[in-house]
Specification:
two-stranded antiparallel ribbon, 11 helices
Length: about 375
């Protein structure tokens, strides 16, 4: 079975997984050996909006899941990150498929702004998708262990807010799968809490009285197995280990190192807690303004990364709880010292990159 032929089968799985009688699988979890593919595309109308049906047309594939960014409270304007603030399920209907929704929900005004009224509106929205037979994943407040979000590094409030949302969804929209998704690795605590606080106790996972990289970067925020359906991780190649450089190919085994060497995320959260895992967002950064050297091309740089996981059957076989990969299909200007730089993560706009990716994906048969 070719990868293109695989998509209709995956779409059937999306509709049937949760309702199958006496299944031990989590909400929306496919059987072992199956893998969902999602795309996060740039739907910002100010940038000539990419759209799901356009992505399908240029790849010749029927992508089964699309990511939408949404804020809570919902706002009627675009935020500074060029993220639409309300999910538009109508864009899925334009594809002529049964594509599913993967929502990333950002409390852009902080966790204190997540009121019961806002949660109620969210539940009504997601229950509406269920009535339309649209399968939905909800990734609430991701990368909470970083220091760049309005809700960052406040584990006590994070946990309690998560549980409030999960309880409401279990009651009003029980088919929604909630995804716990930190950022890869440790980030220094920007504003350390008081040593006597609950947050300090949670962050100091090894109990040595110091908040540092020897503490578990993920566990402080985990709300508990009862309230989590999937676990996920953001994994990117930025050439971050080489300060102020771009267009450096990934090192061998780099992706796997982030997934299961740094703090053992896969082992501790997917295997240890028996949760399906997703790569919540991922891509390799390419800077078109920097000359390439040593025979490197945009194709070879990005291909060296996607071949470590997305089309690597050896890797996928070694990580059977990994059942969902979301590619970040956006180019953006980022304010990174010493000066702003372009980071183009896209796989499907440059024809050479797209053709190489589609060819490699066709080799992932039966997943």
């Amino acid at each position: 079975m070719s990868f293109k032929q695989l998509f209709p089968a995956l779409l059937v799985l999306l509709a049937s997984t949760f309702t199958a009688a006496q299944t031990p699988l989590a909400r929306l979890e496919p059987p072992d050996g199956k893998l969902y593919l999602a795309f996060w595309i740039d739907m910002d109308p100010r940038e000539g909006a990419d759209l799901p049906y356009l992505l399908n047309a240029r790849t010749g594939l029927q992508i089964p899941v699309f990511q939408f960014g949404q804020s809570i409270p919902v706002k009627n304007t675009l935020n500074p990150n060029r993220m639409a603030n309300q999910t538009n399920e109508g864009l899925l209907r334009q594809t002529g498929t049964n594509a599913a929704i993967y929502i990333t929900l950002y409390p852009t005004d902080g966790l204190d702004a997540v009121t019961d009224q806002e949660i109620g509106m969210l539940v009504d929205q997601l229950a509406g998708y269920a009535k339309l037979n649209i399968s939905t994943w909800l990734r609430f407040a991701p990368e909470m262990n970083g220091n760049w979000m309005a809700y960052s590094q406040t584990p006590s409030l994070y946990r309690s807010t998560w549980i409030r949302i999960a309880r409401a969804l279990r009651a009003g929209a029980p088919n929604v799968a909630m995804v716990f998704s930190p950022n890869m690795g440790y980030t220094a605590i920007s504003n350390p809490p008081a040593r006597t606080s609950d947050d300090f106790r949670l962050l100091d996972t090894n109990g040595d009285g110091v908040l540092d990289a020897t503490d578990d970067p993920y566990l402080p925020y985990y709300p508990g197995d009862e309230w989590v359906d999937w676990v996920g991780l953001s994994v990117y190649h930025f050439a971050y280990e080489r300060p102020n450089l771009d267009n450096v190919p990934p090192t061998p085994g780099e992706f796997e190192q982030h997934v299961n060497t740094v703090s053992l995320f896969y082992q501790n959260f997917a295997v240890g807690r028996n949760k399906p895992m997703m790569i919540s967002e991922s891509a390799a950064a390419y800077n078109p303004t920097i000359p390439l050297a040593g025979g490197l091309t945009e194709v070879s740089l990005k291909q060296a990364f996607w071949r470590q996981y997305m089309t690597n059957t050896t890797f996928l076989d070694a990580y059977p709880k990994l059942k969902f990969i979301c590619h970040f299909e956006i180019s953006k200007l980022e304010d990174i010292p010493p000066e702003p730089r372009v980071r183009d993560f896209r796989l499907t706009v440059n024809a050479d990159v797209r053709d190489a990716w589609v060819k490699d994906m066709d080799g992932v048969k039966g997943r």
